[in-house]
Description:
Layout: E1 8-10, E2 22-29, H1 31-35, H2 42-50, E3 57-67, E4 80-88, H3 94-103, E5 108-114, H4 139-142, H5 144-164, E6 169-170, E7 197-198, H6 206-224, H7 228-231, H8 241-281, E8 286-290, H9 292-318, H10 324-339, E9 344-348, H11 371-387, H12 395-407, H13 412-415, H14 425-433
Antiparallel strand pairs: 1-2, 2-3, 3-4, 4-5, 6-7, 8-9
Amino acid sequence: FFLDLRNLINEQSADRLKDSNYVIEIHYYSPEELRKKNWDNTEEVIKMWRTTNVPYIRILERYGEVPENRIREDGDPQKYVYSRFIVYSKEGRLYDDIRRYELGITGLVLDKEEISREEFPYRDIHWEKIPGRWLGVGRVEMLFDPQIRINEMMNLRAKASYFAAIELFQTADETINKNLLTDVKSGQILHTRFPLTRVPTEERNLASYQVEHNTWLQNRDELTMAYDVIRGERLPAGTPLGAAVLAAQMTTSYFDQIRENIGLEIKELLYKDIIPQFQKENTKEHYLKLVGEDLDKWQNLQIKLETNKELLKFLAQKRKLPTLVQYELMKARIVERRKAKKEEEILIPENFYQDLKYYIDIIITGEAKDIRTKAMNLQMVLQAITVDPTLLENPTKRKIFIQILGKAGMHIEDIEAIEKEPETLPEIVRRRAGGGIARPVAMPPIIPGREEVRV
């Protein structure tokens, strides 16, 4: 699950979280939740918490090196070992508590154990990194400068609009001492010795504002690689198609690299954490329910297995192989019994996954495959099968076709249809019972000059 960074305290100068000298996660428990933990001193902690005025019990979980004598009484105080401590944090200044736990575990310890660094339970994935800081850099932080300057320009334009809305007039005639809005009627003629002109309060710098605004928007696009071709906007008139495609490929390659880096981190998480955790949690005997396509594959395997067993049993009893009809009837009975089930539960024995050897490759973002090349290969395979449907039936052609697929990075099982479902018992009986009209036999052509014609 994702960790709330507000509850995480670590060395901010570390490159990765695993390299930090200390990692502390803050947990908040209710008394009922704390009692469910298999820790020491839980009741004492609850009694101490009841004397406070806070709603939850604050527990610190710390990972880092401590002197060995803090883990074992006979430990060497000069030797440091990697460990995990669960400590009750008395309510007060959290920074002071954390500082004490950095230098050495103090307070009421609920649980402690020495662990290896491979058992470190946290993994951090960053979009982009900057030197000297554990926290990565996101798009919001990268756009601080453009956003600040654009905000300043918008504020200036907003202030200028207030002055532009004011109607002011000026004249050198001292006899004019009126408010033109209240003391002058529409159409009235003013007799003045000097002209009456409007004071220019309108904003005359809008063009420069717009130029700078567009410059900062362009800087935003360059920082975030969010060009118009990526946003789906219409390109400028006259832009060649090849240039647009090249720009799109160059821009998307930046995001493809980021996606690949994050995908590799997730892949390592699955390999080293998720799969081992699955093995650990499923050590007990349990049932696995199969439905849909998985059930069809499982049933086909069981049909083959049970058919082979029945064949060996028939051979041992009769001392001969069954006829084709007997074999089909034997298989049809098994199919009819198996296919009647819409779902099936398989018993997985205890510790089944413990010694299981598996070979698995996880592809998350397609970083190991060229999607365009794969699509072209699939199109080629489809065309080849359409032109010559015997590619999957003729043994010689099939062997060559499998080698071609291997060169293209595919397997014959990826394109072959699911095995045809065997006939059921009623269908075989109905087909073997007969009763239909025999297929007519074509008459041979009559050759002139011959006395007899064979029919």
